[in-house]
Design brief:
The protein is of the alpha/beta class. It is built from 15 helices and 21 strands. The protein folds into two domains: 264 residues, 3-Layer(aba) Sandwich (Aldehyde Dehydrogenase, Chain A, domain 1); 190 residues, Aldehyde Dehydrogenase, Chain A, domain 2 (3-Layer(aba) Sandwich), CATH 3.40.309.10. The strands form five sheets. A seven-stranded mixed sheet has the order 15-16-17-14-13-18-19, sandwiched between helices.
């Protein structure tokens, strides 16, 4: 029987008061796991009041005191990683050993990074034109943050916002995706039972987009963190007004394969980035733009690598690709493949759902060739296990195809020529560029976000850079003349 999830407000699990209930099923087995109820206005107010009240005393704690709590949280994640990993696999669909467990470990590491970053949050002393004055700066938390996170990395993305937020002295209200609310409930239990996190610093509400909108517009919410679809980011941006926002929203990042690339390495890595998390990653191998001189050789190597990846039950240690998380995303993958084929593309590996599993969310790892720039795959984020080839006659055409997108998150380039790499680095319109490594590569202490002028969002996720976005710089001018 599906478990009814309770809101977590001011350090207490509260039975939901709303009537709009969604049943969450496992993408792995189809089993009913949880029932989540959309939060109503009264519950949103209660969470905002609790977070606002708690923030006043939380901000007054020293950086070392807040860092100690962050380390306690990291300890709790590490101690319970098997339990959390199994729950994450069941609800999200990630392979347990290769993705779920490492994801929990990285979640813990994000809290440790924030704990140490906040102790070194230095600011400037600025020379004054007046010999009797001294000018200095310091940083202060914005206050209450509403954090809206997606279903593909629910634990990791919780930590990407929560760790820097609370380390810096903010308090948080989280609204997880309606597809993966259960894992956040388990995390709330850990915070409640295994840490000294004060009541009201972390709060948890469930629901769909309307609950998120209530949080964004709530007068006691002073900052917004969002990871998800670019259309939702645009709505949040318009409704948030002047509130500080961090928006990381969608990617269709190109991977460019030059004729001088290490093709063995590139083939292995574009497949890894295309199939990891069943392709449900904002910086996955969304488009492979390959120089036509080495197209045939490279595509053959990619096919060989792709055939090594095994679709199956994510609890099986041999499985490297689990099911997709939800039907709308799986259907989009199917639509994009079918559209490309109609327009002349050729499927080399996979290309359809596999019917031999308990749900119809198991999509075959797919390699598709001769993808045109008029296809949905090129024009939009696919978000499925796919490696699509687009040919380019030279570097200039590769850059043109790569930049032919309204999204600009992360790109990758494979070349042995440093001057060529420099050219791509300065020409590609993405916030992050990776040279000779796959497009999924990112270290958690580094800044990650979209390029200006694209719909991918604003602000940066990662290490101290998120903490900078979640605090404001204050300036003090002090007259010592008397």
């Amino acid at each position: 029987m599906a478990e009814l999830l309770k809101n977590y407000i001011n350090g207490s699990f509260e039975k939901p008061k709303g009537s709009n209930v969604q049943v969450i099923k496992s993408p792995v087995s189809g089993e009913e796991l949880y029932k989540a109820t959309d939060a109503i206005d009264e519950e949103v107010d209660a969470a905002a009041n609790a977070a606002s009240k708690a923030q006043k005393s939380w901000r007054d704690k020293t950086a070392w005191e807040r860092a100690d709590i962050c380390h306690q949280i990291a300890d709790a994640f590490e101690k319970n990683k098997e339990k959390l990993g199994k729950a994450l696999t069941k609800e999200q669909g990630k392979p347990y050993e290769s993705e779920a467990i490492p994801g929990i470990e990285e979640t813990a590491e994000n809290f440790r990074i924030a704990a140490e970053d906040v102790k070194r949050q230095e600011t400037a002393i600025i020379p004054s034109m007046d010999k009797n004055k001294r000018i200095f700066t310091f940083r202060e938390p914005h206050g209450v943050y509403a954090c809206i996170i997606p279903w593909n990395f629910p634990t990791l993305m919780l930590s990407e916002f929560m760790a820097p937020a609370i380390a810096a002295g903010n308090t948080v209200i989280f609204k997880p995706s309606e597809w993966t609310p259960g894992i956040l409930s388990l995390i709330a239990e850990l915070f409640d039972q295994e840490t000294d996190l004060p009541n009201g610093v972390f709060n948890l509400l469930y629901g769909a987009g309307d609950v998120g909108q209530k949080l964004v517009e709530h007068p006691q919410v002073e900052g917004i963190g969002f990871i998800g679809h670019y259309k939702t980011a645009d709505i949040i941006s318009r409704h948030a007004g002047v509130k500080p926002t961090i928006l990381e929203a969608s990617g269709n990042g190109p991977t460019i394969i030059c004729e001088d690339a290490d093709l063995e390495k590139a083939a292995k890595e574009v497949v890894e980035a295309g199939f990891y998390c069943a392709g449900q990653v904002c910086c996955s191998t969304a488009r492979v733009i390959v120089n036509e001189k080495i197209h045939d050789e490279f595509s053959a190597k990619v096919v060989k690598e792709a055939e090594k990846w095994k679709l199956g039950d994510p609890n099986d240690p041999e499985t490297t690709v689990g099911p997709m998380n939800n039907e709308p995303t799986a259907q989009k993958m199917q639509n994009h493949v079918e559209d490309a084929v109609k327009k002349g593309a050729k499927v080399l590996v996979g290309g359809k759902r596999d019917e031999n599993y308990p749900t119809d969310l198991y999509f075959q790892p797919t390699v598709i060739d001769n993808v045109g720039t008029d296809t949905l795959i090129h024009q939009h984020e696919t978000f499925g296990p796919i490696v699509p080839f687009i040919s380019a006659k030279d570097d200039e055409e590769a850059i043109k195809i790569a930049n032919d997108s309204y999204l600009g998150l992360q790109s990758a380039v494979y070349t042995k020529d440093s001057s060529r790499a420099f050219k791509f680095m300065n020409s590609l319109k993405t916030g992050n560029i990776v040279i000779n490594e796959n497009s999924n590569y990112w270290e958690p202490h580094c800044p990650f976000g979209g390029a200006a002028g694209t719909s991918t969002g604003k602000g940066r996720i990662g290490g101290r850079y998120t903490m900078l976005d979640m605090t404001e710089l204050r300036t003090v001018t002090w007259d010592f003349s008397e």
